[in-house]
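SEQUENCE, STRUCTURE TOKENS:
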Amino acid sequence: MWPAGPEGLRRAWTALRAGAAAGKALSGGAAAQAQSRPPCWSCGGAAAEEAGDAHALFCPTCRALQPPDPARDYFRLMDCCRSFTVDIRKLQRRYQQLQNLVHPDHFSQRSQTERDFSEKHSTLVNEAYKTLLIPLSRGLYLLKLSGLVIPEGTDSEMDTQFLVEVMEVNEKLAEAQSEAAIEEVETLVKDKQKKLTEDVSRAFEQDDLQKAKELLTKMRYFSNLEEKVKIKKIPS
């Protein structure tokens, strides 16, 4: 990470500008989008041209931090392809890069407006990072972007065989008293989640959103089991 404070902010800004200069020229569609964004709240200058770039968080004229867009696509914010398969190291680097720019620690000497924007930006970056980091939440977010939502309480839509399987694992965990028995259930649940994750990835690759929705619903059941295992492992 870059050091905190003005020097860290300056170095992060310089690196981002250099990266942007090496990128592709702005397309007509992106230019139109830039023109539709409001001017800088501080100096009234034109908005930064490329909204997807981290340096566009600041006014290109006065470098005042601009307000966050709560509707921004998490994949675009975190510089990731809109896909179930994500480069985790790249995601982590992007997270650190953005937090080096917008974290509230860097704005303690700035205006109240920028301090408020900083808090909101940092919260948005945290939420985007956590959402894309975990396969289940990443998959659910992809479905949401496509207009599909998995409601709570979907037992009636699941096949009986799967529900019986989940019930049996729950019973096995409830009966587990030794550390070895708990670890056996933990391994079973992790293996199941790994297989479901692979199947979800394949469904998204084939653009089969209904299949992805079905598999993510199953992943949610086993995610709940993972949490139960963690609680079971905590000494009473």
Q: What stands out?
A: Residues 74-133 form a domain with the Helix Hairpins fold (CATH 1.10.287.110). Residues 179-205 form the longest helix (27 residues).
